[in-house]
Amino acid sequence: MGASTGQGYEIARKSREIVRELISEDISSLGPAEASIVERIVHSTADPEYARITEFSQGFVDEALRSLRSSGGILTDIEMVRAGISHPSRCYIREPAVRELAEKRDITRAAASMEYAASQGFRGIVVIGNAPTALMKVIELTLEGLMDARAVIGVPVGFVGAAESKEALRGTDIPHMITRGPKGGTPVAVAAANALIALSKDKEV
């Protein structure tokens, strides 16, 4: 839960109790692992609506945990998401080669970073918290067999392309988690990723 002292742990425990009471009906149809991920998202954002707009594809949790337990990597769209994840992760958005690719192709650096990751043989979980263009590129690369995305956390935030990119992911067979509509962002992406990491280690989410 992120707490490191007795007082901090007690605050976190009480907060999670409140969260469970607020969203218990909304997550009643979810399995224990999925419910714990949603609880962590709501706890991290203080926004119970995420219990109603978060969706998981069948097998997402199992595939994500299988990837983590078999040394699969974690790839993020921006550095802020990478910095919040409690597991070695990669973000290529600042790579000179990515900047050059973006300029050459006239695409966003976030999208170019996904192409670059694929060219470097990335295999594992992709975590998109901000850039819809990155999510669309992951979908494209994965469906074309050019990226080995084992599972995708697709929660970009915003009013331009975010909802559409998530709906596009929702329509694929790629194991995924999304938040419907424009809501999402770094806190949601990080909370979901860290919840999966905790589950992979059989720790409390």
Describe how the helices and strands are arranged:
Layout: H1 6-23, H2 32-45, H3 50-53, E1 54-56, H4 60-69, E2 73-76, H5 79-84, H6 96-105, H7 109-119, E3 123-128, H8 132-143, E4 148-154, H9 162-170, E5 176-179, H10 186-200
Helix pairs in contact: 1-2, 2-10, 4-10, 6-7, 7-8, 8-9
* Coarse morphology: globular
What is the N-to-C order of secondary-structure elements (H for helix, E for strand)? HHHEHEHHHEHEHEH
Note the gap between the termini: 6 Å
User: How many structural domains are formed by the residues?
Assistant: 1
What Rg, in angstroms, do the CA atoms define? 16 Å
Secondary structure: number of strands: 5
Query: In CATH terms, what is the fold-level topology?
Result: Rossmann fold
The pLDDT mean sits at: 95
Helical residue percent band: 40-55%
Largest sheet: 5 strands, mixed
CATH H level, superfamily name:
Cobalamin biosynthesis CobH/CbiC, precorrin-8X methylmutase
Strand order of the largest sheet: 1-5-4-3-2
CATH architecture: 3-Layer(aba) Sandwich
Highest CATH level, the class: Alpha Beta
Question: How large a portion of the residues is in β-strands, by DSSP E?
Answer: 5-15%
